[in-house]
Amino acid sequence: MTDTLDRTLWTEDGGARQGGADLWCTYAAVRTATWLGLTLPGRDTTVATLLARQNSDGGFAWQKGLPSDIWATYYCTQALNDLGAEVPEPGRIAAWLAGTQDPDGGFAMTPGQAADIWATYYAARTYAEILGRPVPRPEALRAWLAGSQRADGGLGWNPGASESDARACYYGAMAHRAAFGDTAPPWDVPALVGWLRERQTPEGGFVFDESATAACLWATFRAVRALTALGARPAREEECVAWIHARQLPDGGFVRWEGYGHADVWACFSAVGALTALGREVPEPEGVRAALVACGLPEGGFTYRDAASAGDSLATAAALILAAPDGTGTGPATDPVAVPEPGADPVAGEPGRRAALAGWLRAAHLPYEGGVMYMPGRGAEVRCTLWAASALRTADEQPLDADRLADWLRLLQNSDGGFGFWHGRGSDMVATVSALEILATAGRSPEGLDLDALRRFLDACRDSGGYRFAPGGSVTCAATAQAVRARFLLGDRDEARAEAKLLDPFRSPLGGFSAVPRHLPDLVSTYQARLTAQTLGAAGDAAGGAVAEEADADLDRFLAKVRRPGEGHAWSPLGRGSGGPLADALGALLERGRRADRPLPALNL
């Protein structure tokens, strides 16, 4: 067993990466080159990378082995189409996609989740542009889209949303155009155009919503494309174009915000997308292409910036956890170098390594969003925020700003009481318990949230055999374990104590826990069950202690099956080698002991 990260995954900016291409980055790079009429190297390996994400149900997944979702399906199929590659088995894709439409006509990211405008956009464009098929139940979809307009004229994430957002306006306008062509939209279009135009700042760029003050290229792209889809233009178009041009660096790449010094794939995508929508020339297109090429990976696909410096928060958090040898931390690092110089060894010296990793995670808590971003320049995500907060606490490093976290989570809570992975996404159990555990890790009470609505969301996911990932999803061990912890963190300890017994059927005769009863055990399910047992047991809870005692008897047998000497841990006994930094972190934490002074950090996937 090793408690260290594969050195090839360290990045020059002080962080770490999981390895492999990111779907959003790959789509953004390919689509940007397509807009420019240019080609990028590595076409065949990129195609192979995208094809490897398709599941047996026809949909595509964020990473190989994860469930299908519309987000991944859209990005993979669009990029394959732009690359001139055949999209395989369109009939199965269509059948899977139909299962994500809810009774009201909108679409959800995964079957069983509530519909949101992100997923509805992805579905509409996949039907129209990839499958060449009409969207099912078009009148219901049109009514759902109509209900997304709010009294201020903007569009929200779903009907009944509490705020309007330029991203939601873009997704709604583009979804309608994909599904209904030139048919008049079902909204008060002048009011919608007016709301979007009001998001333009005096400098010329756009912001996402009424509370934002700093313009960014992502918001500008969404606003400009939404306006053009509605047959309109920015009120001060020339100022908008000038502001976009000002975000270009001397080498040709673009940056998302003023003062953010690194070109990334999303900024290039946003700048080129906005300029082409306005019919404007893109300055130095070959420089843009060079910036995209720098994001390419030898194994195929793309990341968000030059690959040597493209860390991500999940891998960096895992590395920081592994850098605390006993799992409890050894006190704050005192090395003053938070980020190593380019070309330096980022793992030279334990204090320097820990300081760099901790500094990277705090730097990913950018001032424009209240949570931690998966990759800097991207949107904040709940799971990433939890991993960052837990890793900093495990290593006894300076924590994230608790006030910002609490404010962000209040804004993020959906009307059904649950939380989604990011702003505007439908609720699920992983994100919901992660929100509560972020607050607990930060030493904050959940009282600022709508707790009654949150309990109703948990109730909606309840089934006789456990809990579902989302109200219409399937019961799993992880979702059940997470729901029990959520009940506990809400103060419903008697209910949590009683429901801890729901985990018993997921216990595997091979040791550990399986996702569904009588299946092969896996690392995620085992970690979630163990974390739940420890959460209840830490409070002297008899039921939690009993679960923990029984789990102790099986844990060693399970770990022996997923331990890969000299490599780390596999996700399941069938894995041939390390599952990567996240699997290595979960496995190492389970290996390090079960004493009360070595609690497992809250980590969810």
Shape: globular
**Structural class from helices and strands?**
mainly alpha
Share of helix, binned = 40-55%
> What does the radius of gyration come to?
23 Å
Low-confidence stretches: 327-349, 539-547
Give, in spatial order, the strands making up the sheet with the most strands.
1-2-3
Distance between the termini: 22 Å
What characterizes the major β-sheet?
Answer: 3 strands, antiparallel
- pLDDT averaged over residues: 90
Order of helices and strands: HHHHHHHHHHHHHHHHHHEEEHHHHEEH
In a few lines, what is going on in this structure?
The chain has helices at 23-36, 43-51, 70-82, 90-98, 117-131, 138-146, 166-180, 189-197, 217-229, 237-245, 265-277, 285-293, 313-322, 350-363, 382-394, 402-412, 429-441, 451-461, 477-489, 493-499, 523-537, 542-562, 581-591, and strands at 462-463, 466-468, 475-476, 563-564, 568-569.
Question: Which descriptors apply to this entry?
Answer:
single chain; 605 residues; 3-stranded antiparallel sheet; 5 strands; 46% helix
Structural features, described:
With 605 residues, the protein is mostly helical. The protein is 46% helix and 2% strand. A hairpin with a 2-residue loop joins β1 and β2. The longest helix has 21 residues, at 542-562. It is globular and about 70 Å long.
Q: Which helices and strands, and how do they pair?
A:
Elements: H1 23-36, H2 43-51, H3 70-82, H4 90-98, H5 117-131, H6 138-146, H7 166-180, H8 189-197, H9 217-229, H10 237-245, H11 265-277, H12 285-293, H13 313-322, H14 350-363, H15 382-394, H16 402-412, H17 429-441, H18 451-461, E1 462-463, E2 466-468, E3 475-476, H19 477-489, H20 493-499, H21 523-537, H22 542-562, E4 563-564, E5 568-569, H23 581-591
Antiparallel strand pairs: 1-2, 2-3, 4-5
